[in-house]
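Please go through the sequence line and token line underneath and see whether the fold suits the sequence. See right below:
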Amino acid sequence: MELPVPYQETMRALLGAEYEEYEKSLEGPGFRGLRVNTSKIEAEEFERISPFPCVKIPWIPNGYYIPQDAQASRHPYYGAGLYYLQEPSAMTPARTLPVSPGERVLDLCAAPGGKATELCARLKGQGVLVANDISNSRARGLLKNLELFGQPNILVTSEAPEKLAFCFPEYFDKILVDAPCSGEGMFRKDPSMVKSWQAHGPEYYGPLQREILRAAVRMLRPGGMLLYSTCTFHPLENEGSVQYLLDTEPEMSVVSPDEKLVKQFVENGFCPGRPDLLEQGSPELCRCFRLYPHRVRGEGHFLALLKKAEKEDCKQKEATSWAGSHAVFPEKPKPKKKSRGKGQALENRGSCEKRGSCEKGSAFGISQEALGPVKEFFAQMDPSFAISRSWHSSLDTGEGLLFRQGQVYALPQGLPLLQGLRFLRTGCLLGELEKKRFTPSQALAMVLKREDWPWTVDFSSTDPGVFRYLKGETLEDPPVFQKADKALASDVGINGWCLVCVEGFPLGWGKLVNGSLRNKYHTGWLW
């Protein structure tokens, strides 16, 4: 791999005697990773049923190395949302941010969804995850991955960070900022990043990262935690951006992850942050971590865990400007900002009806009579299912429901009044209501478990029928069983909605009509 000369010089200054080893590591193969969706299956159980060899990633409890030739994205388990394919080092930020069920969590630069899916899985259906990406096209891929993982308590937005900060002041318990960066740590995985680096290097991304971090701090509640990460090595983007935050936000400090996790990091070749790379670097920067491809079995990464002081514990020092603490590697003059194009919304371009809104305590004018078909559908669900109980309560009162353009959503609890934001999803899309007929959504199918619905067809992972279903074909005479007594649908003449599964894990819906299963798999997800 031919590296740009300025980059080589920077890395030689950074790594010293280790540089030759680093450069050599770029010529070898990278590592493929898989992260198990623990909201659907435990890691140990997945190991037992995995269709390809898996080797544990030591510092990721539900992460595994997989062979380069594994066809992991073409297996029905992938369609059931049992795992996410992610580079091993990239699993580390979400692993490091301590998220607990019931918390309010923000993934500010979330696409394509690797970190967001893990954060939401750890919420266990409680609390809320706001997953945002300023690019509308990237946010659509993010939405698919979250719904594939079966996560109901989500908001997916496509907004500038400063716009979100206006709507969510001091709202979140935990925030992850995997910031856009020059991508130096990805040169081995994606050599095209070298050309991108030449077009937009660290000097371009540094100011952008600091803008994002300032907005994130405004959304973090006192006592909350923020995880900042990049996939680059340059101190301007790493220690430099963290130091900027320490200088301008006196209530923020760098903290260490829990002791057990730090031990795992050290044992697996992680390096501490480098305050010596800055002219006035804080000793706190030693609590950051650097991942190099010649030291870890993964690509390059940087992460820093920060905490916002409680109100009474705020630092009393004066906030200083960035001029007091800058990188040894000089910055180029900041380029003038160009006007932002489509998908980089900084302005409010219209009313909430045009851009989307999310209001509490309202079904947006839908009457209880109109909700009848929705209630009738959910009456078939197992009442012991916790989310089912919550939705039944919402259907009775209208509280927590959103009805817009024929679609019915169940909103996460505890949301503020939000208007003017560009949403791709508000909560869980339950389905569509049209002419007194309710059609359940693909997202709802992925949230359910096989036991929650009375009629299911459950294929083995090698059955040709499961591949035909994922391709959108109609299935003739499928073995659809009733949960209660295992009666065949064909024996009792059942017609209606059927949950299609693989090895007990839902894939989507089918409509049983006279023994034929009409395929209702989401057309945008077809294989």
